Predict the 3D structure of the following.
Amino acid sequence: MAGLAACSGETAGPNGPAPAVKQREAVRVRTSPVEQREMVRTISTTTTVESEREIRLVPRAAGVVMRLDAEEGDRVKAGEVLAELDRRSSQAAITEARIALREAEDAARKAQLTLPEAENRVATAKLKWEQGQREYERNEKAGLISQQALDNLRVVRDTAQSEHDGAKLAVERAEVDIAALGTQKAKAELALQRAELEDSYLVLTAPFEGVIAQRLLKVGDSAGPSAPAFVLTDPTALRAIVHRPQRELAMFFAAQRSGGDGNGNGLEIRAVAEALPGKTFPGEIQLVSPSIDPQSGSFRVTVRLPPAAAGEAGLLPGMLVRLEIVTERHPNALAVPKRALRREGGSDFVFVVDAGKSRRVEVKEGFSDDSSTEVEPLNGATLAAGTRVIVIGNREIEDGADVLEEATAGAPPANPAAAEPAASETPAQATTASSTKG
């Protein structure tokens, strides 16, 4: 009997033969390969897109809206009329100012005509005076006429001199009148300009080319300086304002100086909008404020954003975006899915599949993104691109355990027997594992 027991592999005991030791089953796991790719450190912040040129147009004079020439969504050019208020009173004031100006111009022209006449009288009086002077002097020297006749010649000479002096005064008076009428004309011109300016306040025009974002009045409304009439925005000059802690000031100043040449210099900025899924828009640092806000301890960064391409949906003023600012790059990093990383007692490690067994590799965690984490093997361990790490089934596994591998992300499993789900898995577990593929 002893020989039979030995041949059967069973050991006799007081209660009969003992059962044979059952071999431990291999743990079914799901794996994913280690990737060698670029990993980046990213700052993420949420802000609102705004236009560098967006203004609220307010009428500078009060009046009733008589005409609207622009509607929301209209693209307008600089100087284009958007609305017109009641201009009848201002137009009448312009007409009155033009009449006053014409009267001043007529008076000035009339005064200009009196000046040559006065100058001619001066010349005539001068000739008469000079002639009387010569005749008086000649007769006085000759002594051929009586004293009375000589006195008469002196009276004629003095009268001519007086007339000459009067004519010169008339010229000066004409010149003063011309100057006064010139001042009156200038005042009339200024009154006309003022009337035209007041009239222009009743016509709302676009100060720059852009798009009407809002129309805030309608025909018949009483408009005035107390309320805006339109909101005009330029959708081609987009920017976003973010506030960053002061410890990052040097980094942003350096990035602004380098300008981001595509060779790792500067900061790469990407804008993502929930309203535009699947689209990413590049950004560029435009301004970095050189001062720190004492209340928040942060500084202001202005990021320029691209306008929408013709016929395509793009960023718009007021749109909420998430700015992702890449601050550092590791171009040849080893990356594993986040599910592959385990933490225990302050250590990070992954399990790799090596010849059908699990092998624990301690790692140092680096940069991360939404799905992957950069790892660096520690303590002399090796980890290479293509090495398969366990992503499902690594929570209860031990170092050196037998594993049956099932690859993720559509990759073929290293062990063909792993193509079917393990019998020990419940339907719910199998569904969870399938949903994590890829």
Observations:
- Helices lie at 2-8, 88-142, 147-200, 249-258, 427-435.
- The two ends are 59 Å apart (CA to CA).
- Residues 81 and 242 are 36 Å apart (CA to CA).
